[in-house]
Structure formats: structure tokens, C-alpha cells
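Sanity check

After download, print the first record. It should look like this:
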Amino acid sequence: MTTPEILLPLFLVAIAAYLIGSVSFSIIFTRLFTGVDVRNQGSGNAGATNVLRAAGKIPAFLTFAGDFLKCVAATLLAQFILVLFGGAILDTMLIPYLAGVFCILGHIYPIFFGFRGGKAVASTAALVLMVDWRIFVLAVIIFAIVFACTHIVSLSSIVAAISVPFSTYVIASIRNQRFVWLDTLCAVVVAGILIYKHRANIQRLRNGTEPRIGGKK
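Expected C-alpha cells:
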């Protein structure tokens, strides 16, 4: 495939993934269960943790599942689009990362909900799983350890995100990927987006005011 022929399917992947990501399940399920906008409740974040505080366990579970699965759907659709165009660049981590990044951007800035979304923790987790299950497992283990010690979701998410670029580089090298450093750069971008969206949480962590889930305050 020539460069223009490659760019067209990548453009379609980006647009499709962004639109899928723009479906904000936290807003949808909180409105269905309580009639309120989750962005006006609690921390103001359109994510599963704030839905748990604002609407309860069932809407929070449905939100997490929806946000996770929409990124899975975006990466699978990306592969399908590329197959339609010949599949010349399927053997790379770049495709799930590209679809995942635009799905995450859709989640954070949803076109269907006034560009006010969440922090994309669940969608980022799904993206990591679709890139390579070993990167996902390592991130989940790190998240679980930090959460067990602190009961703070934001801190656990940040530390798990930091691990992703390092594990991506290692796994991409083991898999003999053609673009190891580019794959790693994509992982840095994904981790950077998640950490940037947690900047208010980071400030509260520094101040000692970040809320915990369960455990002692």
C-alpha cells in the first residue's frame, strides 16, 4: 500500500474510535437511574468511581463495563477496517494504540455530551488489554497492590499507567515488533493523557485530601 492508501484507513479508524469513545456511559446510566448529571455530582468526573458515589453499585458496574467494552469495540473495528483495506500494517501495536487513543479522547471530550467527559481509566485498561494481555496483567497487579495499600483509586490508576510504557517496550522487544520505539511512544502518550486528567487528584494527594474507597480515612 502507498502512503495515501495507508492514511485513509487510519483516518477512518481515528474517526470511528472517537465517535465510539464519545458514548459516555457514566452520564447515560446515572441519568437513567437517578435522573441527574453525574458531572454535577461528587468530584464532577464522568467515570465509574463518581457514579458509584452518586448512583450506586449497579450503575457504576454498568458504566465500567460500557467504558471498557467500547474501547475493545474500537480496536476490533480498527482491525476490521484495515482488513477491508488490505491489512498491510496489522502486525503492529500501533493499530490498537491508535484506535485506543482516539477512543480515549472521545471519552474525555465526547462530542455527544458537550465535550465534558471522564478520565478514561476503564477505557485505558481495555486498550492495554487489546495491545497485549501481559501488559494488562502487570498493570492490574500494580493497581491492585497500590489500591490494597491505599484504597485510593486515582493513585492506583496513576501508578499502573506509569508501568505501561515500560512494559510496552519490553513486550514489543520480545515480540520483535517493527516499531518498538513508536509503540513505546504511543504508550507514553496514553499514560500521559491519563496522568494529565488526574492532575486535580494529584494535587489532592499532595494535600492529603484525596478521598478513599473503603478502609480507614
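If your output differs, re-run the checksum step. Summary of this record's structure: The chain has a mean pLDDT of 89.
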